[in-house]
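ugh ok fine here u go
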Amino acid sequence: MGVKKTAVLVLDCAKPEELAEFYAGLLGGTASMGNDPDYVEVYDGQGICLAIHRDYGYAPPSWPRPEDAQQAHLRILVDRGDMDEAEREAIGLGARPVDTKDNSGPRDTRTYSDPAGHSFTLAVSAEPRPPR
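structure:
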């Protein structure tokens, strides 16, 4: 029998409160700061879905350049009919387009950088997701 574990993706940045608010808005969640002022969690109603940590020496990853290249990125799945609206929401919250050509098909993906420079992709989900 193993010890119960939970994993959460943690993004580093210089201003965790601001980045947490960006992702809370994008994911339809809420940002919550605990006792550690350098760590903010984003909840989506079902639990922690993302955490943000202050890195005092933070340098944003680059994409697609090889120097300071990204190590990982978020892939946020949306229903095909919601892609344009999801793009408007992301940009309205402060995302910067990186590669947003409209593929208009089952492989429609659009890449952005968040306010701290992390890459994320809006992608059409393979099947419509059940409502929350």
